[in-house]
Amino acid sequence: MTAKLNITLGQHSEQGRKEENQDFHGAVVPKEPQLKNKGIAIAIADGVSSCIAGREAAETCVGSFLSDYYSTPDSWTTKTSAHKILTAINSWLYSKGQQHEDDPRHHSQGMITTFSALVLKSTTGHIFHVGDSRVYRLQGNNLECLTTDHRRWVGDKDYLNRAMGIDVHLEIDYRRTELEAGDIYVLTTDGVHDFISDKEIAQLILANNNPDLAAKSIVQFSLDKGSTDNITCQVLRINTLPVQTANEAHQELTRLPFPPDLEPGMVLDGYRILREIHASNRTQVYLAEDQQTSQRVVIKTPSVNFEDDPAYLESFIREEWVGKRIHNSRVLTVYNKDRPRQFLYYVTEYVDGQTLRDWMNQHSQPDIKEVRLLLDQIVTGLRAFHRLEMLHQDLKPENIMIDATGKIRIIDFGSTKIAGIAEITTPIERIALLGTVNYTAPEYLLGQPGSNRSDIFALGVIAYELLAGKLPYGNALEKADNPAAISKLVYQSSTRYNPMIPLWMDRALRKAVEPNPEKRYSVLSEFIHDLSHPNSEFMHDTRPPLLERNPAGFWRGLAIAMVLLNVVLVYRLLV
Fold first, then answer.
1. What are phi and psi of 309, to 5 degrees?
2. Closest to 526 (Cα-Cα) out of 377, 326, 379
3. How many Cα atoms are found within 13 Å in the side-chain-facing hemisphere of 258?
4. Is residue 555 part of a domain?
5. Would residue 564 count as lying in a domain?
6. Alpha-carbon distances of 388 from 74, 80, 378, 421, rounded to whole Å
């Protein structure tokens, strides 16, 4: 039977000899599907005692983190989710701290707290840390501190040199660790580790098999050893990790059977099939009518050719997952399930229009302003993917629809990479689909991971093709499957095919389709801006090199020069 992530948690806190307990701690163990998609979160904080709002700072930091983390998109990585949340919390603490500084009743240090968190997702632990609280890991008899205290010594005293709320800019340590069943993690404030040794912490845990008893024992022992600070300890033991066999994964994916061959007039779960729109060896797409609303919709079904292929099935299900999480007018809408389904398929909006490829075939020389408007819409849709840490990975004219009013929709999410899902361990071998030849970024061809720049490459090729009617490297990318071949790619200036294109715009296109991703645009906004506004970096060139403007003329001229040179050399030898 499939195992799930399961822990036993113990927590205890005492104010000790202080007048107030300014430590704060918490944990969230969610139910499915958040247990799988987001994991378990544990956090601890120690408000700076010299601040009158130290307790509020610690409580805000822990409470907000544990609440807001589970509100972030499932498509985000754990690191992205945590950093965005902690940056926002830090800004709030710093702002409130500045207000306290103006109030003579408050201490000058504002709202400052240490913070350490451990997020257990799938089989990986994610540690976020700032300040001098600590995160330990106990494996067997070996206790290892996984964090570094952010302290600075001045004379015989030490001070925090990094903490939440201390500065408008937040620098937080991040670390990943592979989880193992039986591992024990310990989170402590300095009221513990400043007064008892790591060896004593380990001995207390090993002497108390119950994490709750272990946490209480560590707190009490710290008190007995003379701790003068608030004392907080969290102890968690990993009982089981999420483990699923390939057979179990396949059974889960095939919970619903494949639908039968659909013909016009057939009814599938309340949808009447009108006609087949498209069919390939991977999917079938049908136009249908919702009998409840009379609305026209599109039904996409998987191909029976892949009925026993778990990787394909996961990819098909992921398409719906992606579409239901992107809410953007320039991305195809995937409808939520509003009725029981007997078969595996999903339902999308119907776009009454044509693909961008068909549009390009009908508009061989579109106006530059018209092209910009189309690209603006594509960027709007693509940006929706990137904001959710998704890469489309198969952007091409065939995967862009234009409706009768000229509005764009990005379609087909079968190749989409989801950063947050990639963190979840699976027995299914995820096959990276490389997109389509001539639109695929060179880094994919070399087996390297993609990034936003990879989608920008595909967008750059589309922009070039819209303006010039050609491809920036001809068909050379079809054979560029090694570093040597990619290094020989020669960009062909778009002005060669369309003299109406300004040189600065051609330079923007060239930067977008740079074979080296490090030289490419890093964000969509820069590219789309440079297509409409001359970039000063591109203005020093008066005209493209002859090799770009006229490759045939360049090589013809070079050949003539070589012939003349040979004639001169022969003449000198004879003379």
1. -110, 100
2. 379
3. 18
4. no
5. no
6. 9, 10, 16, 12
The CATH number given to whatever domain includes residue 294 is: 3.30.200.20
- Buried-exposed string 62-80: b where 16+ CB fall within 10 A, e elsewhere: bebbbebbeebbbbbbbbb
Q: What are phi and psi of 175, to 5 degrees?
A: -150, 140
Q: For the segment 278-312, what is each residue's pLDDT rounded down to a tens digit?
A: 988 889 999 999 999 999 999 999 988 888 888 88
The neighbour count for residue 566, using CB atoms within 10 Å, is 10
Look at residues 53, 130, 61, 50 and name the one whose alpha carbon lies nearest to residue 96: 53
φ/ψ (deg, to 5) at 380: -60, -45
Distance CA 384, CA 280 (A): 28
Q: Are 454 and 485 in contact (CB under 8 A)?
A: no
- Ramachandran quadrant class, 536 (left: phi over 0; alpha: psi -120 to 50; beta: rest): alpha
Q: How far apart are CA 146 and CA 144, in angstroms?
A: 6
Question: Rg of the Cα trace of the chain?
Answer: 30
pLDDT per position as a tens digit, 388-429: 999 999 999 999 999 999 999 999 998 999 999 999 987 776
Q: Which of 349, 381, 412 is the endpoint of a domain?
A: 349
Tokens of 571: 């003449």
Identify the DSSP state of 466. Answer: H
Domain that holds residue 140: 6-243
Supply angle C-alpha 230, 233, 238, rounded to 5: 170
**Total length of the chain:** 575
Q: Give domain status of residue 570, yes or no.
A: no
Integer Cα distance of 417 and 318 in angstroms? 9
Cβ contact 500:394 at 8 Å: no
Neighbours of 246 (CB within 10 A): 12
Q: Do 184 and 252 belong together in one domain?
A: no
Q: In this structure, what CATH number is given to the domain that contains residue 426?
A: 1.10.510.10
